[in-house]
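FAQ: What does a ligand-bound record look like?

Like this one, built around phenylalanine:
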Amino acid sequence: MDNSRAQWGSKLGFILAAAGSAIGLGNIWKFPGRAYEGGGGTFVLIYLCMVIFFGVPLMLTELSMGRASQANVVGCFHKLGHKGWSWVGWVGVLGAFIITCYYSHVGGWVLRYVYSYAFEAPEVYGDPLGYFYATLGLAADETTHFPWVAILFAALFMLCNAVVIIRGVEGGIEKFNKIGMPALFLILVILLVRAVTLPGAEEGLKYMLSFDWSKVSFTTVLSALGQAFYSLSIGMAILITYGSYLPRTENLHKNTVLICTMDTLVAILAGFIIVPAVFATLGADHVGKGGGFAFVSLAGVFEQMPGGRLFGVLFYLLLLFAALTSCISLIESIVAFLTEHFNWKRTATTIGVCTVMFLIGCLYTCSQAAYPLKGFWIDAAGGVSFPAFCDAMEYLTDRLMIPFCALGCCLFAGWVWKPESAIREIEQSGVRFGMKKTYAVIIRYIAPLAIITILGMSIFGGITLS
Ligand code: PHE
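The answer part, i.e. the structure of the complex:
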């Protein structure tokens, strides 16, 4: 083993960092909307099955590949003796790079909204959509201005990430997660108590616990699977990097189950906060997902809620911690690759990469509302199209790169490196892994088939993965 490589200082540090990577914007603003659309309890149940049958085995695979190789996402394939598969790692690094460009900017908007609720709540309540657009560079009369406020906050957000990454794995990432994650859980519980005690919240709670199979289709199942991948940070090869900092004595299986449980718990709790809160204040039809919902519709919820301003600040703080800990993992996997592959220095690499990603991200923010910057997309359903630049970035990562990298990992672990090698790695800690056969069947056959279906549907059927 290469002794000069960084390692986690403690088991708890690793678990919190990996859970921090997984728990992100996907859990808090995407999951509740998807759960609502998918019929509440029905979707939650399907989602749980996806996490158990696909999430756990795939996370276990990425972590064992990382720990076995003790290398970054590309180096991992070299070290395991199959250089020809390093394209999987390249897709992972590139995907992480593109996601960070926009994730960091959305993180900046979230930071801006912490400030907004603390100091400008009446303005937000007065015209939530106008306020959001003005932040992104579009005035109420549709005149364009440079969205410098959003960009300034994105720069601040990126700076926080860079500071943590420069401090290293144990001194930066682990330390930050040890504060950020407990804070996140605390805020989550406070918000949950507030939401479920609102008059009228029972309807939303009932909905989240009800089973309406008429709302379920094949697409619902695929969307639950895509959501599970995105939410667990699978398919970006990030867990390969985080696994590579783990000592051999760690029980990979137990840790994986714990991380998946924490991530799923947060997603479900977020569902039990947002859905009842929207039912109680604005009414059932207003539950949504994505940026418009998180920044615009929720304003009405906080406006009507007793103590709404304080809970607004807390909610955006929750999002901020979630976004920071996920973004840190994305940047770390890029920096780990660049420093190891090209022998670059950590500080200079971090500053360089963060600057480039921040600059590309500016195009993302500009194209949201203010500037008509276009991207390029091609799919069998719609042919060639020129979506907004921001949408093209998300299509590229969510619809193509994440499933592609996840498929590469499955095929590699299932057919090239072989499940026996992964199992040997999993059992390094001395604890027997009791699900060997099931694991091998999922990794070799079921998961690749499911991912190919997702890829097919997103290329030919126009569904979104995330
Ligand atoms: N899992 C994160 C979320 O739920 C997003 C993410 C995806 C982070 C891929 C890292 C890698 O928001």
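Follow-up question: can I read anything off the structure? Yes, for example: Residues 21-22, 24-27, 99, 230-231, 233, 236, 238, 326, 329-330 surround phenylalanine (CB under 6 Å).
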